Amino acid sequence: MAAGRIHFIGGGQMAEAIIRAVVGNGTYKAEQISVADIHEERTAYLNTAYGVQAASKSQEAELAGAEMIIIAVRPQDDLAAVGVAISSHASSGAAVLSIVAGVTIDRLAGYVGAERPIIRVIPNTLTDTGLGYSGAALNAFAGKEQVEEFLNGFGKVQYLEESLIDIFTGYGVAGPNYVYYFIESLADAGVLAGLPREQAWTTALENVEGAVAMLRHSGLHPRQLLDINNSPGGVGIHALYELNNSDFAAGLQRSVKAAVKRTTELGQVQS
Ligand SMILES: NC(=O)C1=CN([C@@H]2O[C@H](COP(=O)(O)OP(=O)(O)OC[C@H]3O[C@@H](n4cnc5c(N)ncnc54)[C@H](OP(=O)(O)O)[C@@H]3O)[C@@H](O)[C@H]2O)C=CC1
Ligand SMILES: O=C(O)[C@@H]1CCC=N1
């Protein structure tokens, strides 16, 4: 169980996913968590669903009592106003942890003051599973011990140079999206070929899970497993040939590059 109080500014999808995980697995008690959102119905919902405290309008007491403040608004939102609230009411030793995609530690320091612990995190979205890596970069005032329990409460963490966080966002944290889309497309392929939807779906899930387990278990490169699975003139190599004709690998790689580029762009949007 982690010690201290944490306060979320922004009670949207990502804040909810984190709260659901850390309260659900006992990393925090609901009483240790408060949430502020522009929309009162949102904090009321989070209070009812998870027992966390809906913050007052000024957030004064919640900010003053928090060991860690989590900025969970969008990059396009009014970060300057969020910064004013934090620098006016939070204690100088409180850690400020931002999950805002693209927004740099330097920019955050401009809003909340440079001489305090600031942690830039891109949070993993597989929060309910214990799997998936968040990426974190710390300023000189922050220590891993201040954030470790929180971050491990909704998955795993990789500490990175800040210069790699945008790449980690587009590749790693957006990563499940590529896999979800692949699984959907694969199941559709089974249906297109004539399998009932239910069988196509369960087979796709089993194959993805099994392929990961096989890679981990064997330690082989995917190309080596492909070679074993593709008999000369057989089924698998015909499928691969067509996949190569579709520009599959380059299409996927272009989409990761677009996600990384968009992360950096979002970090530069000012409301
Ligand atoms: N969703 C995801 O999968 C991921 C999201 N992130 C990052 O997490 C952050 C939040 O994303 P997400 O939860 O999806 O976004 P949401 O839009 O679901 O949540 C943001 C919430 O904050 C509210 N809000 C805006 N400004 C303020 C303010 N000044 N004070 C209090 N509340 C405010 C918003 O209200 P309103 O709608 O009226 O603006 C909204 O309810 C983003 O910066 C995103 O980059 C990172 C990784 C993954
Ligand atoms: O799409 C988004 O804005 C968030 C950030 C990274 C993944 N999803």
Tell me the layout of helices and strands:
Layout: E1 6-9, H1 13-24, E2 33-36, H2 40-50, E3 53-54, H3 60-64, E4 68-71, H4 79-89, E5 95-98, H5 105-112, E6 118-122, E7 133-138, H6 144-152, E8 156-159, H7 165-173, H8 175-193, H9 197-218, H10 222-229, H11 235-245, H12 248-268
Parallel strand pairs: 1-2, 1-4, 2-3, 4-5, 5-6, 7-8
Antiparallel strand pairs: 6-7
Bound molecules: NADPH dihydro-nicotinamide-adenine-dinucleotide phosphate and (2S)-3,4-dihydro-2H-pyrrole-2-carboxylic acid.
Domain Pyrroline-5-carboxylate reductase catalytic N-terminal: 5-102
Keywords: Amino-acid biosynthesis, Cytoplasm, NADP, Oxidoreductase, Proline biosynthesis
Domain Pyrroline-5-carboxylate reductase dimerisation: 162-266
What Rg, in angstroms, do the CA atoms define? 22 Å
Strands side by side in the biggest sheet: 3-2-1-4-5-6-7-8
CATH architecture of the largest domain: 3-Layer(aba) Sandwich
Helix content: 40-55%
Named once each, the bound ligands are:
NADPH dihydro-nicotinamide-adenine-dinucleotide phosphate, (2S)-3,4-dihydro-2H-pyrrole-2-carboxylic acid
Order of helices and strands: EHEHEHEHEHEEHEHHHHHH
Low-confidence stretches: none
N-to-C CA distance:
37 Å
User: Averaged pLDDT, please?
Assistant: 96
Highest CATH level, the class of the largest domain: Alpha Beta
CATH homologous superfamily annotation of the largest domain: NAD(P)-binding Rossmann-like Domain
Shape: elongated
By helix and strand content, what is the structural category? alpha/beta
Task: Indicate how many domains the architecture comprises.
Answer: 2
> What kind of sheet is the major sheet?
8 strands, mixed
Using DSSP, what is the number of strands?
8
- Report the CATH topology name of the largest domain: Rossmann fold
